[in-house]
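Look over both lines before class:
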Amino acid sequence: MITYSIIQKSQLEGALRLDAEYYQPEYLEAAKKLKKYEPLKKFVGNIIHPQEVKREYSESGYLFLLSQNLRENYLDFSDKFYINEETAKQISKNLLEENDIVTVRTGNIGLSAVISGFKEKIYASADVIVIKNPKISPFYISTFLNSKFGKMYLNRIIYGALQPHITPKLLGETPLPLPDELDLKEIHKLVEIALNNFKQSESFYSQAENLLLEELGLKNFKVEDDLFYIVNLSEVKSARRADAEYFQPKYERLISKIKYKMEKLNNLLLPKKGIKKGIEIGSEQYQEEGKLFIRVSNLSKHGLVERDQKYLSEALYQKLKKDFEPKVGEILLTKDATPGIAYLLKEPIEGIIAGGILRLRVKPDIDPEYLALVINSIAGQMQVEKDTGGSVIFHWRPDQIKNLLIPILPKPTQQKIADLVQKSHEARKKAKQLLEGAKRKVEKLIEKN
């Protein structure tokens, strides 16, 4: 259905903007509802665009915040990037402080979170804009920016042809509805409790990882590259690989450390349709809304991530769902781009998986939650690294995936580990529900007024 707006010449914002996108009906409605409120800049100290720096990441050092670490009202450091001390000194003004609000500068405009409760130093990249010294609850400001009204307003005023973005000045002019003190405190509290639930989730997951590594004898295993080593020609021919990284002794040291029997992944999957691949459909099929099209970038070890989410039409979804919609109890496993991310699907979803993701169906004699954790752990990731190393674009071949070695712990230990992962999931789910509740409350307050 075509949507349109009829705009009077006198309404053309002083002729500063003539593009049709700016006058979309939903954007106009959001702007109308927010028009009477004071600008954000009156409620904060200053708004800055962090200094750009050459991106040379380190294996350790100071956390470097990228836009991909932002979620709605929380930060996800499943993927951690570090900068060294020298780089940190170059961008000392990018150091984030408690209660700073970070919001994406380009891409998913409006996506925001608060720096809260982090013990380690975090430096912001130029991917984000930082709102400093808020005079009211930073959780409320962040929740408003994540709301449909905040996002619609900001998406209306972004500019730039190739890569539309927001600026500190434009962000500062954004109207900020201010609820009464009671509502403000309630929204703040909801977000605060949610963040505590995220911390609990991380704690449970960390306990599960530590228990696994202790049982496998890998708790204090150090990943160290050898400067040189000797490989027989017969090994090169057998592996059909000649890149030095593949033959690093660290991989054999890892396997030799594990105290338990190892099974090939293929032997742990159902004999028929134990592995099913997703489908590539072509970007011309993408829709602005509809059913989910789940790509590698939308998957993490904790579940699905709304990152540059693509959608399919209802008709295409109905055509593909029988063969390409994942089912509860299957492990989703990435094989391309960032191979080796595993997640056990716990709740039904309406969506289709892309060709870079596999669906694994596990035999009943191994716990699928345990299996997913092993793949995500150092025991699995070093094998993935060995298989996919030496490539410009990472692809994990099906034959390599089937030969992934999985240590088999006793059933009671598998269950104990799986229970901790499940507790982590429940705490994360509760946190997201609380954040959604806070956002809905903000939206209702704006609607009401």
Observations:
- The chain has two domains: 9-178, 201-430.
- Residues 201-430 form a domain with the Adenine-n6-DNA-methyltransferase TaqI; Chain A, domain 2 fold (CATH 3.90.220.20).
- The chain has a mean pLDDT of 89.
